[in-house]
Amino acid sequence: MRMLRAELLKIRRRWASYIVLLLLISFMALVYVLVGFSIHRGGGTSTAILEFPSTYAVIDQFAFGLLGSLLAVAYAGAIAGADWNWGVFRLVVARGESRGGYIVAKFAAIAIALFIGVLIVFLAGIALTFVAGALAGVDVGDPLSSVRGNDLFRSIYLGYPVLLERAAIGFAVAVLMRSQVAGIVVGIVLYIGEGILGLLLTAITVVNSIDGQPTATGVQWFQFLPFSIGNEVLAHASRLPGEDLASNLQTAVGLETAIIAVAIYLVLAVGVAVVSVERSQISS
To answer: Which residues fall within 8 angstroms of residue 234, CB to CB, at 6 or more apart?
Structure first.
């Protein structure tokens, strides 16, 4: 607990903790305002994205989708890699602290920071929905009614583990490569690269199916890749219909199976980081 409190204090003082959150909310605000004006001017945008519970699908995409995941990977890599750049690890070892305990405490602090960030993003998203609704002249409804409230909680408890797993990968990369920059860059490249690979393999699978028709082809092995399996979990949360082409071309992985796979990747990523520091030289 002592190391966890110390890590939380360090995170609270890092500018990255505020810049990442500000970037995400600022971009979300821009999109919501533009959507509100578009609907008001009759731009053809569906009003469903400003009505609860459908709007939770939009907030999901900001918190756990491409932008949120990239920022989480970069944030975890930046926090983990900074200790190597600043020589903090040598000081920790010299003081006789547990190496593995130190890494676990650092990731636990990142997990807490991300959870707080997710809550803030959802609160901001709900507030922006009302702002955009007022601009568009749309009644957005009650975000916490009995049924719609369940959509909110489902979005968070399904999305947060996915975000945490992706952050853990960026965290592990930064620790393994002992570099803040490498943790950010390599983590983001892995995320984007896997997404491109998944789309290519999906296209190849569909083309090779019967008559090349774009029909569901069954669960494929590449759906269990680290970032792809997270998308399978997110697919069970509230989402806008038809937004993911790949999901319409292949059979979805079961929710329980996908959650277990995400948990395994999360544990493996943190475990790899722990093993790495346990085996590293003290002078490093």
So the answer is: 60, 64, 65, 158, 159, 162
Distance from C-alpha of 83 to C-alpha of 10, rounded to nearest angstrom? 11
The secondary structure of residue 248, as a DSSP letter, is G
What is the value of pTM for the model shown? 0.87
Longest dimension (CA), the chain: 66
**What token pair was written down for 104?**
């676990």
Please list the rounded mean pLDDT of every run of 10 residues in the chain (284 residues).
86 90 95 88 74 86 90 92 72 74 93 96 95 90 74 89 95 89 86 87 72 60 90 75 51 89 96 87 50
DSSP H or E segment with residue 77: helix 66-85
CB 93 within 8 A of CB 131: no
Nearest CA among 82, 67, 65, 279 for reference residue 184: 82
